[in-house]
Amino acid sequence: NPSAQWLTTFEIGYKPDKLYLRSTSPRGEVHTYGMADLQEVKVGKKDSDYKFAFPHVEKGTVIDIGYEWSYSVKYFLPPLEHDVWLQFLIPCERVSFRYSCPDWWNIEIKENAPPARVPVVMTHDSVNRKRVMSYEATNVPAYKMERFSPPASEIAPHLVFKAADVFMGGVNLKLPTSW
Question: Would you give per-residue pLDDT tens digits along the chain (179 residues)?
């Protein structure tokens, strides 16, 4: 159904290091997909988007999407500011997010206007010297766009954070502490 293609298509602006795609039909048939199934779509001369259209989706199909990115300071610093959406245009049985960074980075979380601060859990992995920020929610309703409603950034939960003090590979970077 071309008018509902956004429901069955996964799209991402960077090629992830790892990709986990799975669909489960209402009858329990499970299909898994991965990096080899992504289609590269050129955007301009140098950039690309990556897409995957889940086949054989019907009402009641559950779609699971997960991906991982890792960065090395060899060529460039990783993205330091993030805005992670935690509610979408379709209902989700489970939404989870995890961000890990070296434990010597200073992570600042932006205080959002209502609906209040996102309840993240910060843990410390002393063996690997990492700080891990995680979030999980179940039975997340769909975000409903309405013609005169405020923008999603004002009413849908999302997590805005940045690494404000970073030291990597001999580079020390301090971002402004105000938003």
Answer: 566 777 788 888 878 888 999 999 999 999 999 999 999 988 888 788 889 999 988 888 888 888 887 766 555 566 778 888 888 888 888 888 889 888 888 888 887 655 557 889 999 999 988 999 999 999 999 888 788 888 777 778 888 888 877 776 666 666 665 65
- How far is CA 13 from each of CA 5, 23, 76, 174, rounded to the nearest angstrom? 18, 22, 17, 26
C-alpha dihedral, 77 to 82 to 86 to 87, nearest 10°: -120
Residue with tokens 């499970």: 30
Residue 13, both tokens: 């602006």
Q: What is the CA radius of gyration of the chain?
A: 18
- Are 118 and 159 in contact by the 8 Å Cβ rule? The answer is yes
Q: Is the peptide bond before 115 cis (omega within 30 degrees of 0)?
A: yes
Outline where the chain has alpha helix (H): 5-8, 152-155
Structure tokens at 132: 């891990």
